[in-house]
Design brief:
Blueprint: H1 2-17, H2 21-24, E1 29-31, H3 34-40, H4 42-79, H5 85-139, E2 143-145, H6 159-168
Parallel strand pairs: 1-2
Length: 169
Amino acid sequence: MNRKLVLIACGVFLGLVSLPSSAQQDLKIGYVNINAVFSASPQMAEAQKAIQKEFTAREEKIKALQSEAQALREKYNREAITMGEKELMELQEKMITVERKFKWEQSIAQEDLKIRRQQILAAAEKDIQAAILKIAQNGKFDLILSEGVIFSSERVNLSDEVLEQLKKK
């Protein structure tokens, strides 16, 4: 998908570059460094804080399960020789149960975190696209490029303008 967009943008750019010089003078091109905008946008900072707050309790629960599993393993290694067969079996079962629960909780938390990050990135991408579109319309740009740009001068770099637009939201 992104590759197609880059190819289309390059095609449009090459088509515009090949216009007669009188048409080129009216051409207004801008560039946005999407990665820089993503990392510096206030929405992403707020999202990171929200994710951290949302998943802190789960992380603590997972760490507690990990500690419990470790303590049971250490007890097993220390006392296995002196334990009776029934006690040993009970300890092994408890150890296996806690380790399974730890792995399961960890796996679910990782999957939930991945989904939550994708949701946040999608929302941020929508906000960034809206900000770019507003700048393009207000500034009467003919073309705004993002990915696949090897060089852009500060004169055409709109990344700071996009960030300012996002801060107003």
